[in-house]
Amino acid sequence: MIRLTRAIHLFSAFWTLALAFLIFGDVVGRGMFNNPIPGTKEIIQNSVVSITFLQLPLAIYSGSMLRTSIFADAVPLVLRKLLRTFGALLGLIFFLGLIWSTWPSFWDAYRIGEYEGEGALRVPTWPVRGTVLVMSVFGAWAYITMIVLDWRDQLENELQAPGAMPENAE
Fold first, then answer.
1. How large is the C-alpha radius of gyration of the chain?
2. Any residues with CB less than 8 A from the CB of 69 and at least 6 apart, and which?
3. How confident is the model over 24-82, as pLDDT tens digits?
4. Which terminus of the chain has fewer Cβ atoms in its 10 Å neighbourhood, N or C?
C-alpha cells in the first residue's frame, strides 16, 4: 500500500507541475497576446481539489497529519498510543463521513453528465467527485491500517510510520 500511496503522490506532483505550466502559458497568452488559454480557471479549480485528495493517503501513512508533539511527547507511551488511536478514529470518522456524503453527488454528477464551464471548455465534475470518493476510501483504510499497526506494536511513534522516510535518508 505504501508503494501505491507514493505512486499516487508522485502522480499528483507531476499534475501540479503541469498546472504550473498551464498557468504560465495562460499568463503569457493573456499578457503578451491578449489570448488566454480557454478553460484554465475550470481546470485549475477542479485540479486543486483532486491533487489535495491524492496526497492525503501518503500524509496519513507517513505520520504527516497535524499533531501537537509538545503534548504527545510529554505523556507515557501507552497514553501516546491512545492519543494516536483517538486521532486516527477521528480521521476515520471524517473520511467515512466524506464517503457517505460524496457518493450521492458523485453518482448524480456521473449520471447526468454534470460539468463546469461554458463555451470553449466544459469540464466534467464526476472525475473530481470520484477522486474525492476513492481517496476518502483510501484515507479511511489508511487510518484503519495505522490503528492496527500501532496496536500490534509495529508502529513506535508518528515519526516511524510505515510510509515515513528512514531517519538516515535525510
1. 20
2. 158
3. 999 999 999 999 998 898 899 889 999 999 999 999 988 777 666 677 778 888 888 88
4. C
Alpha-carbon separation of residue 170 from 56, 166, 167 (angstroms): 22, 8, 6
Residue pair 5/58 in contact (Cβ under 8 Å)? The answer is: yes
What's 116's DSSP letter? E
Interatomic CA distance for residues 68 and 29, integer angstroms: 45
d(CA 38, CA 60): 36
Considering the chain, what percentage of its residues have pLDDT values greater than 70? 87
Other Cβ atoms less than 10 A from the Cβ of 106: the count is: 22
If you count them, how many residues does the chain have?
Answer: 170
For the entire predicted model, the pTM comes to 0.84
**For cell 497576446, what's the residue?**
33
Give φ, ψ of 73 to 5 degrees.
Answer: -75, -15
Torsion 31-118-49-15 (CA) sign: negative
Question: Are 128 and 50 in contact, with CB atoms under 8 Å apart?
Answer: yes
Report the DSSP beta bridge partners of residue 116.
123
- Residue 109: predicted pLDDT: 96
Beta carbons within 8 Å of 24's beta carbon, 6+ residues apart: none
